[in-house]
Structure formats: C-alpha cells, structure tokens
Amino acid sequence: MGALYQLAFGCVFGIVLTRTGASDFDAMVRMFRFEDAHLFALAGVTTAAAALGLWALLRSRWGAGVRVVARRVHPGSIPGGVAFGIGWGLSGSCPGTALAQLGSGHLVAGFTVAGVVLGNLLFERFGRKVGAPADVCS
Amino acid sequence: MPLILHGLTPLHWAVGGAGIALITLALLFVANRRLGISTGLEDVCSYVLPVPYFARDAVRGARHWRLPFIAGLVLGGFLSALLGGGFAPTWDLGIFDQVIGFGPAGKLAWMFVGGLFIGFGTRLAGGCTSGHGICGLARISPRCWLSTAAFWGTALAVTWLFAWVGRR
Fold it and tell me: For chain A, which end, N or C, has fewer CB atoms within 10 Å of the first or last residue's CB respectively?
C-alpha cells in the first residue's frame, strides 16, 4: 500500500515537472540564457512555498511527527555541486527531470539516465576518497 | 513559450511551484520522507553492482519508497504525453539539434557524458535538484544551500559556454 502511495506521489511530481517545462530541454536553456524567466519563477515559488509550508507545518499540531534535519557542509559539497552542474548544463536535465523526460517519450533521456547510473558506479570505485557524506539529502 | 512536447503551453509557474511544494510537504507529512531522487538512482546501482557501499542503510533502507517514487516519475512523464496529445517517442531535442547538432550518435554520447557528471556529482554532493535544491533549501540546510549554489552557477556557465561555442 505504501508503495502505491509513493508511486502516486512520484506520478504527480512527474506530471508537474513535464507540464511546467522543468523537464523541457528548450525551457531549461532559455532559463540559463536569461531569455525566459518561467523556470526561475517556478524554482523561486517552489522553494518559497515549500519553506513557508514547512515552517507552518512544523508549528501546527500536525507537525509533531515530522522530522527535519539540517545537514552540515562536507568536503564534497562544492566539487560535487560543480560536477553535477556540468552534467546539468550538458544534458539540460537533473535526475528527476531526466526520468520524467524519458517517460514522456524523449528517448535521449534514456542515455542520460544510463550515464547517471554509471556515474554512481564510478563514484563507488573512484570518488569516495574525495569525501562522500555518509548521509544523503536527496 | 511552448514545450517541445506537442507544443503544449506550460502550466503557470505559480501553479507548478505550489504543486511541487505540496508534493514536498505531503511526502514529509504523510510518510516523513524528505523529497529526493538521486539516491533512488543510486539504489538502482545496487542491482547492477552488489557491493556493501550501495547496500548501506541510507540507501537500501529507503528502497521501499524511493523505487516506487522514481517509477512514478517515469509514469507521470508518460501520462503527460498521453493526455497532452499522445505518446510519440522521439530522438529529437529542440534547440540542441539546431545549435549543437553533432548527429544522432554524438547527441547520445553527449547525454551519456552529461549523465556521468550528474551521477558522480550528485553522489559527491549527496543530493540533486530535488533533495538539495527543493527540500534542502526549504528546510534551511547549510550543505544544501552551498551545493545548490554550486550546481546552479556551474550549469549556467556551461550553458553559456556551449551557446558561445555553438554560434562560432
């Protein structure tokens, strides 16, 4: 039953990412080139609404069971962000939008996802010395 | 500006932003899960390479919700296409084909290399646009703010670099 809930959550997330243009290669390029503020606005509203909502949730009586953790900076924070940024700039997608892209029929995203999986495997072999966090934020 | 997908008009950014925020909060409220994608993809690796690293608790302990969640993402993309004009698989990719070109094999290699950087980088940083960028920023986590600044800045610079190279 829990798995079905999560499938439904993921499905709604996938629909929103696809229909807002977050998983759209052109929209992503237009954002980074400052030609269209649509995705900047989307990211801004998402972050602000999630932060405000979380703040309200934690202060309400429904927030008692919600665990929120703030993670400390680690040696991989900046180099990892830069490496991911290179991949984002190249492919125009991040892990979530690549999956939604693939589902919507953009077959090139299959290669992006395959790259992500191999990137994970390479990290296990060669990257852990650089400084991997024991916990994850993703 | 229309989407590549059937030339659809994108949902308004305020509606989309509220929607993603609601999903983030619903995950926390209903199931006490912090939104994140890249760790689910890391878990996929544990099927490819059975080593202790991928079997650690932070990854495999969350399998029961991360794997259906990322499957849902693919399904959501599929439904969007189906409801928005039909599922029509394509190798085309909008601006990419016009500016960078490179031919079909080159494009796939390009995406694969992009994916390698994403995979390696998200593991090193411990998160991606959803875990660090949406959920992490919202819960004011210092690590997430730092990594998010790094990947936004870098992706922006890389896009400008290729637009510059592509025009010459």
Answer: N
